[in-house]
Amino acid sequence: MTRSLPLTRRPLLGGLLALALLLGLLVLGGPTASQLESGSTWHRGPAGYSAWYESLEQQGIAVQRWQRPIEALIEQLEGVEDATITLVQSSPAGAETLVAVLPDFVDRGRLPDLLPWMPAWVEAGHRLVILGVKTPVTAAPFSQTLTSEAGAVQIDTRRRYSQGATLGIDLEDAYGAVVWQQSFGAGPVTLVATPHLGANAYLNQPGNFALLTELVAGGRVWIDEYLHGYRDQGAIAADLGGDSWINYLARTPLVILFAQALALTLIALLAYNHRLGRRRSLATPSLDNSRAYIQALAGVLHKANSHDFVVQTVSQAERLQLQKALGLGSMPLPIEQVQRAWDERPDCPAIDLAALLRPPLPRTESQLRDWLKRVQSLHYPDDTTRDTTGDTSGHD
Fold first, then answer.
1. For a disulfide at 255, which of 29, 238, 271, 358, Cβ 3.0-4.6 Å?
2. Please, which residues bridge with residue 154 across strands?
3. Helix 206-216 with 50-58: angle, nearest 10 deg
4. CA atoms within 13 A on the CB side of 83
5. In 10 A of CB 146, how many CB atoms?
6. 51, exposed or middle or buried, with CB in 10 Å at 0-12, 13-18, 19+?
7. Strand 187-192 relative to strand 63-66: parallel, antiparallel, unpaired?
8. Coil, helix or strand for 324?
């Protein structure tokens, strides 16, 4: 036999299962922000660039995070009036440098799709530094220290560039270049074969920070944070197209919508399934052992058709009870003496007690019922139709 869980534990287990399902949906369906934050100047983890950004500020280099599409920055630098964009007005005049730290290694052929503003930026005469350009894997050691004009630089990648013409190389070894310049449209672009050149993990390698600072120095520096998912209020409003429910549903993944709907449904079920008032326990019915024994015995006799045993037992019990009622005591007396005492009572009807208490044995159940009704008339002389047999089984 299996034991069912108590009623008090079932809602708790159901709630825990629903919570586990909801968390699983959120984990599987939610976006992974850790990879997107890699290379961001807001990120303080090992793959972030917050320490390098702070070092630029400490050196007095004009640097600012950009959290809008780069096209808006190009328009601003070209003199297009846009009151919604705020720039550092105290920045010194000079070349504008844009730094794009890719979240991961990206093939050079994919750069136009990921950074569609590259041609416009370079043609406007600005400088561009891209970190994380994917190059072929070579036989170079994975981790080694390379020498540069800025000092010793720690490199943890086997990828090198050695299959095309360059305009200059800032860091290389015998296997190829790690930092180099290439022509892109109307101007040069500085490319780096690792997205972690100036990451927080190299805080104790001053050469890494110094080399990256040397690559971007010479004017105002812009850091592309829009690439890492950071948006200012104006960019958020432009991307979302408003804050209505329709726009929210249109841009929300179906998995998240399903998880939210499931959570609301479970909350509603739990809220509307509470009892009103305090819980009341059901009273345990009292057990009458005598009545239970009599009913069980009656059931056995009924199935066995033991009419003679029933007649004998009831007759003896009724005779003793009648003697006590007439004041004759509890010792068995002749039926004639009992009949005389009965007839002397003015309130007793005329009944042949001998025929009633010593009847012929009934052969059928209907005959037994008729006899029981006549016996009952001794107790209820005015209601001879009262049925003491209870149900049709005759257990009572």
1. 29
2. 145
3. 70
4. 0
5. 16
6. middle
7. unpaired
8. helix
Q: What is the pLDDT of residues 56-69, one digit of tens each?
A: 999 999 999 999 99
**Residue 363, H or E segment:** none
Q: What are phi and psi of 328, to 5 degrees?
A: -100, 5
DSSP 31: -
CA distances (Å), origin 293, targets 68, 314, 369, 390: 89, 16, 21, 16
Q: Do 111 and 130 meet the contact criterion of CB atoms below 8 Å apart?
A: yes
Measured between its terminal Cα atoms, the distance across the chain in Å is 34
Q: Residues near 59 by Cβ (< 8 Å), separated by ≥ 6?
A: 213
The dihedral built from the CA positions of residue 296, 297, 300 and 303, taken in this order, carries a sign that is: negative
Quickly state the pLDDT bin for 275 (edges 50, 70, 90): low
Sign of CA dihedral 106, 114, 70, 184: positive
Q: What is the pLDDT of residues 306-350, one digit of tens each?
A: 677 777 778 778 878 877 877 777 787 787 877 787 777 777 777
Distance, CA of 357 to chain centre:
77
What's the token pair of residue 26? Answer: 């959120």
* Domain boundaries, given as residue ranges, for the chain: 12-28+254-272, 32-245, 290-376
Phi/psi-derived region of residue 390, left when phi > 0, alpha when psi is between -120 and 50, beta in every other case: left
Give the global pTM: 0.55
10 Å Cβ neighbour count for 274? 8
Distance from C-alpha of 341 to C-alpha of 319, rounded to nearest angstrom: 13
pLDDT tens-digit readout, 130-180: 999 999 999 999 999 999 999 999 999 999 998 888 889 999 999 999 999
Conformational region of residue 327, where left means phi above 0, alpha means psi within -120 to 50, and beta covers everything else: left
Measured in residues, the chain has a length of 396
Q: Which residues contact 395 (CB under 8 A, 6 or more apart)?
A: 295, 298, 299, 302
SS3 222: strand
Q: Work out the burial of residue 385: count CB atoms within 10 Å of its CB; fewer than 13 is exposed, 13-18 middle, 19 or more buried.
A: exposed
Note whether 140 and 134 are within 8 A (CB): no
d(CA 368, CA 359): 10
- Both structure tokens of 233: 């209020």
